[in-house]
Design a protein that fits this description.
The chain is an alpha/beta fold. About 40% of the residues lie in helices and about 10% in strands. The protein contains 15 helices and 12 strands. The longest helix is centred in the middle third of the chain and has 19 residues, at about 150-170. Bound molecules: flavin mononucleotide.
């Protein structure tokens, strides 16, 4: 549980919503991905609901696959890059944390450190960075490579990338810029540190051409699923968004992750577990179920085939009939790819669902945990997981945007507030303060060693 005794909430804005068929819903913002005013509205609604943060996913390529299916599923085929978008959002919000995904596989640490520092300054300390190693393999093709880095190399590069970013953000001591007209000295050279990093993946002299950000460094987030990824999260992440589907699994995950973090010399409170939650709300439970069924019915068969094929590591599902169960040899082949999404799909199929039922259920939540019911039922679920120390909060993934964010803010947030589970006013002015996270001291704090 957090120090404030309150849960933390993030809002995940897939352009038209979390649901695969969200764009077909009449209340979805049809051109969401490139509509700035849409995101302004979402951010302001999240801030009205006192969310800790808004979160944006990213990829540096369009999604690959069969155009027959892709043309019916526009998500992330046309959308803003998160750091550019959040720079605009910073100007129209005051409290909301602004968390951008950016890949360590197809970026340079200097460029990214500079952009993250800029967002933190522009927002007065509300920036966050979701550290990913790229799940879209096609990104490699836009960055001078024929294939994506292997998993181990991806994470080795990511670890070095983060070290360099941290080092660059510490280029200037917090008080290095004295800006003293009386002495005509703008900065104190003793407060400037040149990184001189040379490693297997990056060579970066530094220093960064920007003052240390208000938060020291932006809040670091991760959403890994593999052992390597979780180990890196235990070392560096301050928020973890990995999907969790049952109370017991979430408790085990949190305990394990926090124990690993403690093993790295951190405190259990310095890492917040906030898995995705997709609430499907209705005034009654049956209205919520009808809404879920309606959204599921909007998923085109081509799209269903494509999402399940991707989740199962690219297996060919062209011969499978929607009204029949998925054949066991295909499920086994999918499991061998070792993707966590694949395990979710196989578990659903083994409950005896047909191919159509699996893609309808999986496509609705997109690998996240869906809670279908009244605002009280959703709040009950959240309360239970929070009180039973399974999570520090949730990353809310509304199905259809903007309407389902409005519904959550108008109906679930007041219940959580009445139960003293969620804030009624922001505690601080930075994202760190609202999350109850300490501001990291500079690696040079206490020893002024002058320009390197
Ligand atoms: C909530 C959430 C958001 C994610 N956002 C992105 C993203 O924007 N870009 C990306 O490349 N991967 C994203 N991922 C994928 C993860 O970063 C990670 O690569 C994936 O869970 C597999 O973990 P592993 O690399 O440890 O095997 C996201 C995962 C989750 C659960």
């Amino acid at each position: 549980m957090s120090a404030s005794g309150m849960m933390h909430l993030g809002a995940f804005f897939h352009p038209t919503g979390n649901h695969v068929a969200s764009w077909l819903h009449p209340e979805a913002q049809l051109d969401a991905g490139t509509n700035f005013r849409h995101y302004v509205q979402l951010a302001q609604t999240a801030e009205r609901g006192k969310f800790d943060l808004m979160f944006l996913a990213d990829a540096v390529a369009v999604r690959g696959g069969d155009l027959q299916a892709l043309r019916r599923w526009p998500q992330y085929m046309t959308f803003f890059d998160p750091l550019t978008l959040l720079a605009g959002i910073a100007a129209v919000t005051r409290h909301l944390g602004l968390v951008a995904t950016a890949t360590t596989s197809y970026n340079e640490p200097y460029t990214l450190a500079r952009r993250l520092a800029a967002l933190d300054h522009m927002s007065d300390g509300r920036a966050g960075w979701n550290i990913v190693t790229s799940s879209n393999e096609d990104e490699a093709l836009n960055y001078g490579r024929d294939a994506h880095f292997g998993h181990a190399e991806r994470y080795a590069r990511a670890a070095e990338f983060v070290t360099v970013v941290r080092g660059l953000l510490d280029s200037w001591d917090d008080d290095a810029f004295t800006r003293d007209r009386a002495t005509a000295e703008y900065f104190d050279p003793a407060g400037l540190h040149t990184l001189n990093h040379r490693g297997p993946h990056f060579t970066v002299r530094g220093p960064l051409n920007m003052a240390r950000p208000p938060q020291g460094h932006p809040v670091f987030a991760q959403a890994s699923a593999s052992g390597t990824g979780l180990d890196m999260a235990a070392q560096t992440a301050e928020i973890v968004f990995s999907p969790l589907h049952t109370l017991a699994a979430a408790q085990a995950f949190s305990q394990d992750l926090k124990a690993r973090a403690v093993g790295y010399g951190r405190t259990a409170e310095s890492i917040k577990v906030m898995p995705g939650l997709n609430p499907i709300l209705g005034r009654t439970a049956s209205e919520a179920r009808d809404k879920q069924a309606h959204l599921a019915s909007l998923i085109h068969e081509d799209v269903g085939r494509s999402i399940l094929s991707t989740a199962l590591g690219g297996v060919d599902l062209s011969g499978c009939s929607p009204g029949r169960p998925l054949p066991d040899d295909i499920l086994e082949a999918g499991l061998r790819h070792g993707r966590s999404e694949g395990r979710v799909v196989v578990a659903m199929a083994r409950e005896g669902l047909t191919f159509r039922e699996v893609y309808q259920r999986f496509g609705s939540a997109r690998g996240q945990n869906s809670i279908v019911g009244t605002p009280d039922m959703v709040a009950d679920h959240m309360e239970r997981w929070f009180r039973e120390k399974a999570v520090d909060g949730f990353l809310i993934q509304p199905s259809v945007l903007p309407v389902d964010l409005d519904a959550f803010v108008d109906t679930v947030i007041p219940i959580l507030q009445d139960r003293r589970l969620f804030r009624t006013e922001y505690e601080g002015s930075t994202l760190r303060q609202n999350l109850g996270l300490a501001r990291p001291a500079s690696s040079h704090a206490g020893h002024r060693d002058g320009p390197g």
